[in-house]
Amino acid sequence: MDELKTRLLNEIRKVLIEFPTYWDNGNLIEGKLIDDLRNYEKYLIEALLANDLIKETYTLKVGNNTIFKLDEFISMTRFRQYWGSDYTKYSNEIGLTSEGKYLNYNEDVVLDFPYKDSFLVGGMTKEDIGKKEVFYHKVLAKEEIDTLLSPKVLTNMKKYDEDGEYNITEFKDTDNLILKGNNLIALELLKERYSGKVKTIYIDPPYFFYEKKAEDTFLYNSNFKQSTWLTFMKNRLEIAKEILSDDGAIFVQVSDDGIAELHILMKEVFGHDNFINKITVRTKSPSGFASVNAGVFETAEYILAFAKNKKSWTYNPQYTASLYDSNYKWIIRNKDDHFSRWKIEDINIIVANNHGFDTVRSARDKLGEEIFNNLVGQYALDNNENVFRYTAIGNDAGRKVIEGREISKKNRDKIYIVERENQYTVYIHNGQEIAFYSKKVRVIDGVLTPSMQLTNIWSDTPYEGIASEGGVTLKDGKKPEKLINGL
């Protein structure tokens, strides 16, 4: 690397080091820097061009105007590692390239579509059916966009509480709000008051259904052509990002149509590194319905989850009800005694005896398999602090636990204890861990129940019979309260 290039890189680093937002443990966050350059962040460009060497290298004088060669600067920023060798321009990795650039540099691979540089109002009422939508170009129609998104006056404000309904003239930031109107304007209105303050956003947008005969216009509720729908979504996602707090997250629910395109669009808006999950939600049952599409019957929709800044976002584990796990069939009847004197019994035998049977087989025969299993499950739930199962101890367990496992194997009648700092105490018997049922039991919706951690497949959020849920009747498109509780 020659002296000039070394000096230039040093000067660029000297400027950027003044902006902590572009660094992570001494490494340049290229995506953030490039996003801000492409958005013409004034403070950043002014700082760069205040440096004489950078200005001399990356500007062009045209008459009395100075033009910043933005693309050249961005290319240098991303591919500066190529300058490190006089022998080859290729880095030590294998991958697809386009025009000498790796496709896995996320800003090089984006979702492009007609009207991407425009604003779409998107009428949301039945009166807008068939209406020709206007696309406002962000530069050419700036005055119209400014007017569209200018501060609005809320009218017809009403408050609902235990005393009923009445008119108001103001509300508090802590009040629950329902805004009726165009969602683009509503989001812009919320941005003025709640920018950077909202922890969670859930969006249930009009769904995109591709129809070859459909014109490129918005039709009420759920009939967009692809480019129109993507423009509609991009406008709203960009404002939603501004409203989110730094530790916030957004959840967007769509059907099969549009999920792939929306995923790419959200990666572009929120950043690849801020993707959290794609959740599959069962929304209907095939029973009683005939599929109108070729292929299997569609029962699922999808929720895409992105953080504004994944490093600041914290996930609070969620749990859902599960059935009794019959492996939890052992109980310590005298758990209050010292662990060395614990007596272990089979809860199946206890339940059978409690109901007047001498053996488990006779109890199952007389009561029936299902009834007996339910009795055992309830007994395990009622005694969850004392009921347990045996679990294998792997070789990746801590040193002390592995040592306890090996000692226990040689002394099979004894129970051993391994106390660990800042971790739960491990009890070992016959070379296996004693795992108490209490770790699987939680209060869900006010009821003590067996539970399991929520996964990215939701099949227990029924859509049937929710038309009047919450005291609000909606015939189409309503989402279950349980679905929202899981977010």
Structure characterization notes:
This protein starts with a helix and ends with a helix. Residues 80-92 and 212-223 have low confidence and may be disordered. A six-stranded antiparallel beta sheet has the order 17-16-18-21-20-19. A five-stranded mixed beta sheet has the order 11-12-14-13-24. It contains 14 helices and 24 strands. Helix content is 30%, strand content 21%. It has helices at 3-16, 30-38, 42-49, 52-58, 70-79, 142-148, 183-194, 226-243, 259-270, 347-354, 360-367, 369-382, 399-410, 481-485; strands spanning 23-24, 27-28, 59-62, 65-68, 97-98, 101-102, 118-120, 135-137, 158-161, 164-167, 198-203, 244-254, 275-282, 300-307, 319-321, 330-332, 344-346, 387-391, 415-418, 426-429, 432-436, 441-444, 447-453, 457-458. It is an alpha+beta fold.
